[in-house]
Amino acid sequence: MHNEILEWLAGNKIEILGAILGILYIFFSIRQNIFTWPTGLLTSALYIFVFFQSKFYADMGLQVYYVGISIYGWYYWAKGKKPEDTETVPVKRTRKILWIKMGVVAALLYGAILFILLNFTDSPVPFMDTLTTALSIVATWMLARKYIEHWLIWIVVDVISVGLYIYKDLWPTVILFVVYTIMAVLGYIEWKKDLKTQS
After folding, report:
1. Which domain holds residue 126?
2. pLDDT over 80 at 82, yes or no
3. How far apart are the C-alpha atoms of 88 and 90, rounded to whole Å?
4. pLDDT at 83
Protein backbone atom coordinates (compact mmCIF):
# COMPACT_ATOMS: atom_id res chain seq x y z
CA MET A 1 0.00 0.00 0.00
CA HIS A 2 2.81 2.38 0.95
CA ASN A 3 4.59 1.72 -2.34
CA GLU A 4 1.36 2.24 -4.31
CA ILE A 5 0.83 5.66 -2.68
CA LEU A 6 4.43 6.69 -3.41
CA GLU A 7 4.08 5.46 -6.98
CA TRP A 8 0.83 7.40 -7.41
CA LEU A 9 2.39 10.56 -5.95
CA ALA A 10 5.39 10.23 -8.27
CA GLY A 11 3.14 9.68 -11.29
CA ASN A 12 0.96 12.70 -10.48
CA LYS A 13 3.51 15.18 -9.12
CA ILE A 14 2.77 17.88 -11.72
CA GLU A 15 -0.97 17.71 -11.06
CA ILE A 16 -0.42 17.72 -7.27
CA LEU A 17 1.91 20.74 -7.46
CA GLY A 18 -0.59 22.50 -9.72
CA ALA A 19 -3.40 21.77 -7.23
CA ILE A 20 -1.37 23.13 -4.29
CA LEU A 21 -0.50 26.29 -6.22
CA GLY A 22 -4.14 26.57 -7.32
CA ILE A 23 -5.30 26.65 -3.70
CA LEU A 24 -2.73 29.38 -2.97
CA TYR A 25 -3.99 31.29 -6.02
CA ILE A 26 -7.57 31.33 -4.71
CA PHE A 27 -6.40 32.23 -1.20
CA PHE A 28 -4.47 35.21 -2.59
CA SER A 29 -7.40 36.30 -4.77
CA ILE A 30 -9.80 36.27 -1.80
CA ARG A 31 -7.32 38.48 0.06
CA GLN A 32 -6.93 40.68 -3.05
CA ASN A 33 -3.19 40.09 -2.85
CA ILE A 34 -0.99 40.80 -5.89
CA PHE A 35 0.51 37.29 -5.49
CA THR A 36 -2.77 36.06 -7.01
CA TRP A 37 -1.25 36.57 -10.44
CA PRO A 38 2.24 34.99 -10.31
CA THR A 39 0.75 32.02 -8.45
CA GLY A 40 -2.01 31.72 -11.04
CA LEU A 41 0.51 31.93 -13.85
CA LEU A 42 2.52 29.00 -12.43
CA THR A 43 -0.63 26.96 -11.76
CA SER A 44 -1.78 27.44 -15.34
CA ALA A 45 1.60 26.51 -16.81
CA LEU A 46 1.47 23.17 -14.95
CA TYR A 47 -2.14 22.48 -15.90
CA ILE A 48 -1.43 22.96 -19.61
CA PHE A 49 0.47 19.67 -19.34
CA VAL A 50 -2.12 17.94 -17.08
CA PHE A 51 -5.06 18.76 -19.34
CA PHE A 52 -3.21 17.86 -22.53
CA GLN A 53 -2.55 14.39 -21.11
CA SER A 54 -6.22 14.03 -20.10
CA LYS A 55 -7.54 15.23 -23.49
CA PHE A 56 -9.34 18.21 -21.93
CA TYR A 57 -8.29 20.37 -24.85
CA ALA A 58 -10.55 23.33 -24.14
CA ASP A 59 -9.31 23.39 -20.55
CA MET A 60 -5.75 23.16 -21.84
CA GLY A 61 -6.33 26.14 -24.12
CA LEU A 62 -7.92 27.93 -21.18
CA GLN A 63 -4.69 27.51 -19.21
CA VAL A 64 -2.80 29.26 -22.03
CA TYR A 65 -5.32 32.11 -21.75
CA TYR A 66 -4.80 32.12 -17.95
CA VAL A 67 -1.07 32.65 -18.42
CA GLY A 68 -1.80 35.74 -20.52
CA ILE A 69 -4.58 37.10 -18.28
CA SER A 70 -2.34 36.56 -15.23
CA ILE A 71 0.17 38.98 -16.74
CA TYR A 72 -2.66 41.44 -17.49
CA GLY A 73 -4.21 41.08 -14.00
CA TRP A 74 -0.81 41.47 -12.36
CA TYR A 75 -0.27 44.72 -14.26
CA TYR A 76 -3.82 46.02 -13.68
CA TRP A 77 -3.78 45.34 -9.93
CA ALA A 78 -0.36 47.01 -9.67
CA LYS A 79 -0.99 50.00 -11.97
CA GLY A 80 -4.78 50.19 -12.56
CA LYS A 81 -7.24 52.87 -11.48
CA LYS A 82 -6.90 53.41 -7.73
CA PRO A 83 -8.50 56.04 -5.54
CA GLU A 84 -5.93 58.47 -4.12
CA ASP A 85 -6.27 57.18 -0.56
CA THR A 86 -5.81 53.44 -1.31
CA GLU A 87 -3.08 51.18 -2.62
CA THR A 88 -5.39 48.73 -4.35
CA VAL A 89 -7.88 48.78 -7.20
CA PRO A 90 -11.37 48.82 -5.63
CA VAL A 91 -13.94 46.02 -5.91
CA LYS A 92 -16.93 46.94 -8.08
CA ARG A 93 -20.30 45.61 -9.22
CA THR A 94 -20.99 44.53 -12.80
CA ARG A 95 -23.39 46.82 -14.66
CA LYS A 96 -26.25 45.44 -16.76
CA ILE A 97 -24.70 46.52 -20.09
CA LEU A 98 -21.46 44.72 -19.21
CA TRP A 99 -23.43 41.54 -18.36
CA ILE A 100 -25.00 41.69 -21.82
CA LYS A 101 -21.61 42.18 -23.51
CA MET A 102 -20.06 39.34 -21.51
CA GLY A 103 -23.02 37.09 -22.31
CA VAL A 104 -22.47 37.71 -26.02
CA VAL A 105 -18.72 37.05 -25.66
CA ALA A 106 -19.38 33.83 -23.70
CA ALA A 107 -21.86 32.61 -26.35
CA LEU A 108 -19.43 33.35 -29.20
CA LEU A 109 -16.61 31.62 -27.32
CA TYR A 110 -18.85 28.62 -26.64
CA GLY A 111 -19.74 28.26 -30.31
CA ALA A 112 -16.15 28.63 -31.54
CA ILE A 113 -14.61 26.29 -28.95
CA LEU A 114 -17.34 23.67 -29.40
CA PHE A 115 -16.81 23.70 -33.16
CA ILE A 116 -13.08 23.08 -32.67
CA LEU A 117 -13.58 20.29 -30.12
CA LEU A 118 -16.24 18.49 -32.16
CA ASN A 119 -14.36 18.68 -35.44
CA PHE A 120 -10.66 18.57 -34.57
CA THR A 121 -10.23 16.69 -31.28
CA ASP A 122 -11.14 13.42 -29.59
CA SER A 123 -12.52 15.20 -26.49
CA PRO A 124 -14.77 12.83 -24.50
CA VAL A 125 -16.83 15.71 -23.02
CA PRO A 126 -16.87 18.53 -25.60
CA PHE A 127 -20.08 20.29 -24.48
CA MET A 128 -19.26 20.59 -20.78
CA ASP A 129 -15.55 21.24 -21.41
CA THR A 130 -16.59 24.09 -23.72
CA LEU A 131 -19.10 25.50 -21.24
CA THR A 132 -16.62 25.67 -18.35
CA THR A 133 -13.98 27.12 -20.64
CA ALA A 134 -16.17 29.92 -22.04
CA LEU A 135 -17.41 30.89 -18.58
CA SER A 136 -13.91 30.73 -17.12
CA ILE A 137 -12.53 33.13 -19.73
CA VAL A 138 -15.19 35.68 -18.79
CA ALA A 139 -14.79 35.11 -15.02
CA THR A 140 -11.01 35.50 -15.09
CA TRP A 141 -11.26 38.79 -16.97
CA MET A 142 -13.79 39.92 -14.34
CA LEU A 143 -11.35 38.94 -11.57
CA ALA A 144 -8.59 40.95 -13.24
CA ARG A 145 -10.93 43.99 -13.29
CA LYS A 146 -12.21 43.25 -9.75
CA TYR A 147 -15.90 42.71 -10.53
CA ILE A 148 -17.36 40.94 -7.48
CA GLU A 149 -19.78 38.76 -9.48
CA HIS A 150 -16.91 36.78 -10.95
CA TRP A 151 -17.13 34.65 -7.78
CA LEU A 152 -20.70 33.60 -8.69
CA ILE A 153 -19.59 32.44 -12.13
CA TRP A 154 -16.73 30.50 -10.53
CA ILE A 155 -19.12 28.65 -8.22
CA VAL A 156 -21.04 27.35 -11.26
CA VAL A 157 -17.85 26.51 -13.19
CA ASP A 158 -16.24 24.76 -10.21
CA VAL A 159 -19.27 22.56 -9.48
CA ILE A 160 -19.48 21.44 -13.13
CA SER A 161 -15.70 20.90 -13.21
CA VAL A 162 -15.81 18.60 -10.18
CA GLY A 163 -18.08 16.26 -12.15
CA LEU A 164 -15.84 16.41 -15.23
CA TYR A 165 -12.67 15.62 -13.28
CA ILE A 166 -14.32 12.75 -11.40
CA TYR A 167 -15.24 11.34 -14.82
CA LYS A 168 -11.56 11.50 -15.87
CA ASP A 169 -10.15 10.23 -12.51
CA LEU A 170 -8.17 13.44 -11.90
CA TRP A 171 -8.49 13.13 -8.12
CA PRO A 172 -6.05 15.87 -6.99
CA THR A 173 -7.91 18.19 -9.39
CA VAL A 174 -11.29 17.02 -8.02
CA ILE A 175 -10.11 17.97 -4.52
CA LEU A 176 -8.77 21.27 -5.87
CA PHE A 177 -12.13 22.15 -7.46
CA VAL A 178 -14.12 21.18 -4.35
CA VAL A 179 -11.83 23.56 -2.43
CA TYR A 180 -12.26 26.14 -5.23
CA THR A 181 -16.06 25.94 -4.84
CA ILE A 182 -15.91 26.52 -1.09
CA MET A 183 -13.35 29.29 -1.48
CA ALA A 184 -15.41 30.98 -4.21
CA VAL A 185 -18.31 31.24 -1.75
CA LEU A 186 -15.93 32.65 0.89
CA GLY A 187 -14.39 34.98 -1.69
CA TYR A 188 -17.78 36.39 -2.60
CA ILE A 189 -18.57 37.01 1.08
CA GLU A 190 -15.19 38.69 1.71
CA TRP A 191 -15.34 40.90 -1.39
CA LYS A 192 -18.93 41.87 -0.50
CA LYS A 193 -17.70 43.07 2.91
CA ASP A 194 -15.00 45.08 1.14
CA LEU A 195 -17.58 46.57 -1.23
CA LYS A 196 -19.74 47.67 1.73
CA THR A 197 -16.67 49.22 3.42
CA GLN A 198 -15.92 51.23 0.28
CA SER A 199 -19.44 52.68 0.19
Report:
1. 2-198
2. no
3. 6
4. 67
